[in-house]
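User: Show me a protein chain along with its predicted structure.
Assistant: Here is one chain, sequence first, then structure tokens.
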Amino acid sequence: MEIDLSQFHAVFFEESFEGLDVMEQELLNLEEDTDLENVNTIFRAAHSIKGGSATFGFNQVAEFTHVMETLLDEMREGKREITREIIDLLLKSVDCLRGMLNKLQDGDDVNNDYVELVDYFNQLLSNESSDDKQNTPNQNSEEPLSVSNKDDDNSNGGYSIKFVPENYILQTGNEPVRMFKELEGLGTLTVKADLTKVPNFVELDPELCFVSWDMQLDSQESEADIRAVFEWVDDDCLLEVKQLNNSSSNESEKTSDNAKATVSEINSEASTQTKAQTEPLVADSKKLVPIKKEKEAVKSTNKSTSSASIRVGIDKVDTLIDLVGELVITQSMLGELGENFDVSKLEQLVAGLRELESNTRELQESVMRIRMLPIGFVFNRMPRMVRDLSAQLGKNIDLIIKGEDTELDKTVMEQIGDPLTHLVRNAIDHGIESNQQRADNNKQGVGKITLDAYHQGGNIIIEIEDNGGGINPDIIYAKAVEKGLIEEGVEIPEEQIIGLIMEPGFSTAEVVSDVSGRGVGLDVVKRNINNLGGSVDISSVVGRGTKFTIRLPLTLAILDGQLIRCANEIYVIPLASIVESIPLAGIKLTKIAGNMPVYKNGNEYIPIVDLRDEFDIKTEKQSTNEGLIAIVEGENRKIAIKIDELLGQQQVVIKSLESHYKCIQGVSGATILGDGRVSLILDIVGLSRRSADRATAVREKVA
């Protein structure tokens, strides 16, 4: 009986990508410590991929991994020295394998570009010099590529798009293919690659991109939506987007009819030079010397891209099964009580309902934990990027990773990857000074970038810190005045001045040396983090470095909340943010400059926030001695919220308001209570910022 193996394809690809991640991580470890156990791990991963690919008939992958195995076998037996060139070759081979597997996963054929890498391996294994090889890459004639994902009314003629990336774009972690696939979802896409700048094979640098693209997109989407696809590479490319009329669109449709390839084929065209070609190898290269440096090992390896599936530990599944069993027992008990219920069994009923509540809560928490994944999945992207980009820039940089086992919601993790990549790249490119600058300033020769993650209350904190040149607030202030963001002479706290670099308009070209070139795309980083219900803060000391602190909710679905009443409205305060509650009758409120009410707690003055004033609640004026204040903390700032009554604690399901209402500072979402009423969830950070802004305005008015 013939066995259908197609059902196992998904498992094969998932495990193969995980194996490639393991290989990449261990190859990076080899540069620091030439431990043969690392070589054994790489060998086992390659062997597994070879066996699986042979089973499914993916012979090109099996052939490629076989020659890799041969080289790795010589390395682990001590027959071949571990050199920088060998590691570079193996890393490029990992990239090539990843590209091949991506094409196979999409159902496309693998081209023969990998054969050139196989030739390099064979020459190296036979001790032949590869310097004699002078082949040039096969540059096919420019051929338009067309894909349509949906039928669009072409009444506006669509758009003409010219995309010319900087040659270093691949080293930033951005891939043009990803942008093409996003454009696919907006309409009918026709792509034409320009290969005129691709050099011959001898001069080809496999780390650089020499291809540009001309595209036509037949779509009814706005130009802003088109440009949003390129927002992560806006400062790393030349981008022209022009709206076409119907006549020009019809001309392009004729070209599109002759297209013979799909966007997925661009993968091979764009990545051939980076993933399937290498520079000539020198067999007698100098042996690597182990580098001893502070390092936090990253054990977790997996694809961090968005996926419809999730791997769950068996212990979490066992816990879930146990809780469901407890729930069934409780249900059975309540069912028996209901059949023959009388008043004498009321106490048993109450106990059963409490047990049901407890089991339901534990089950809910267990289900939420299933969605929690270690942030190491995202952090694993960084070592390779730091290695390649620092080598390109000629900088000595160590990456230190901490807290990689800290867990957060899968949805949050998938969306935080690009902002983190951008911040780390920014630290490499603009934060850490050149080797000469560090020497001139008597600083340690090796720059350090530290990634850290930890839980704090109901949030996860992610820190990206470098020991570079820091950010000069005076330069930012002058640039902000020049751009009209602030008025000259207005006093602004230093932290707010530094925060201006996350506003649109600050670019590397405008703020070059004194501000370490920061600002490129940081407004996009801020917007993406805010969309997740988080915040980002910057602290910096000139000459010592900069730290970006990202605060994110652990989950986007459920919140432990405290219900409060103000007038006839019920609000929810995140329980983790509450410090204490105090009756107004037992304290005395004071006022400071500008008639601002505050609560004096020892030497600390805490601003009073009255929800009646904040949300314009129409009601009779409350007596100063009625109700209470709830002292809450967000972003290390405390405020005292004036309320009428505490109603109780409960878990609430968070519902977004963005699709129906505009963003309201101080409100993070809404929930539906048990009686069907809608209650707003207060954003403590937003209320705290509103209070701080109000205090600043009052001080300026008084001054």
